[in-house]
Amino acid sequence: MNRSTPDPEAVFRELYQATYDDLLLFAERRIHPALADDVVAETFLTAWRRLGDVPAPLDEARAWLFGVAHNVLRNRHRSENRHQGLVLRILREPDAVSGAEAEGVAARVDLVRAWQRLSPDEQQAITLTAFEGLTGAQAGRVLGISRPAFSLRLLRARRRLRRHLRSPHEAVALNRPPHPGTTTEIGTSA
Amino acid sequence: MNLDQALRDAAEPVPPRVGQPPARRLLESIVTSPVPPPAARTDGLSPRAVRRTRRTVLAVLAAGVAAAAAFLVPNLGAGAAYASWTPRPAPLPAADRADLGDRCAAQVRATFQGVDGAPSIVHGEKRGDYAYVSVVTPAWTATCFRDRDGAVRQASIMMAPVGAATLGGAGVEMQSWAQLRTGEGLCRLMTGHVGAQVTGVEITVPEGRGGPRVVQATVEDGYFLAWYPEKGQGHGTTVTLRLADGRTVEGLSAKDLHDAPVTD
């Protein structure tokens, strides 16, 4: 992001162009898609009002926006009195070749099932790094926890995911959402 | 299997939407809204970063007084325990490094089954009878300590480290600051990733009967590691970075670095 220009509107437009898709995905992973646009709008409006607080490096600016969006989402959940954890759908930008296509549908189903057995906090930790590409320090700031605490949470989440992958037939009711009130899912590749 | 890649492969793709009408309408509505236009910043630093820099400068000034009295004293404060420990490191022989690195990575993967088997780089050092290594991958970093009896202990692991580009020239991410208890008592193990301009790292530990101790870290390929006997909680420990152009960045609080990296 070029901050050499003093024109705030130009700076904001550049930020918007560079981060809109990532921010929309961030929101869509965590809230019903119909509401994600509102979260994005509120987040960018905050960024416009507080442009001076937005870090200059693009990856830090992106993490800053995720932090604002995380708070917007949290306030929405709170105001709606919904005691639910993360509503986490995994979406990504399309790319040319999907390795999972070659590995087969069965492996993907196992992964989806293992994913569904993670807690919302565990899904959140993995999503922030694997999908949203944040470092541990950035992800910790988004969640309001220390970097070591986030590192531990991520480690546990990944360990549990691997454990679920190795024992996909443990006595867990897989045909129901593991956490009431959530709609956690992994979509399939197009 | 790389878990992250498998998850990404399993996910539902969506097309870019920033160029679509709803996104364009939102942008125009924000920049033409009656909200007072923000003050543009051109210095590349947020006010928060400026405040942090000011705090760092003050810390540097304060630390300068203490650092003036700090010096390298072998074994000071170590007592009979860790008697062979030295404030300056010695290189770890290549064969030793490879063996210890393999054992360390194996321990990490056995203990933390969530980590991927990515290719790793091993850095190491010796201080007296003891060896210390860090194993670095793009997704995690871990450290292992070899005691004088040959026992290897996995000391720390950190996930999702910062990349080199983020650290720039004089940034630093502390990747571990663990305390380990061996048969000789407690010791502190530190590792980190530094910017491209950093050629030396020193750790100033305030405890010690004769005043602050300065521990010289091993710096290799942008990573540093050091360990030292320490019974306390690490209060007041600071890190100094020596840069290729002769400048130094002093007074970086180890505790603050443990919480968040400093980027350049």
UniProtKB/TrEMBL annotation, chain A:
RNA polymerase sigma-70 region domain mapped to chain residues: 15-82
Pfam families (alphabetical): Sigma70_r2, Sigma70_r4_2
Example of a GO biological process term: DNA-templated transcription initiation
Keyword Transcription in record: yes
Record-annotated RNA polymerase sigma factor 70 region 4 type domain positions: 110-161
GO molecular function, one term: DNA binding
Keywords attached to this entry: DNA-binding, Sigma factor, Transcription, Transcription regulation
Family, similarity comment: Belongs to the sigma-70 factor family. ECF subfamily.
Name of the protein in question: RNA polymerase sigma-70 factor (ECF subfamily)
Origin organism lineage: Bacteria, Bacillati, Actinomycetota, Actinomycetes, Micromonosporales
TrEMBL record, chain B:
Domain of life: Bacteria
Biased composition (Basic and acidic residues): 1-11
Keyword vocabulary terms for this entry: Membrane, Transmembrane, Transmembrane helix
Region of interest (Disordered), residue spans: 1-21
TM helices/strands, residue ranges: 57-85
Protein name: Uncharacterized protein
Species of origin: Pseudosporangium ferrugineum
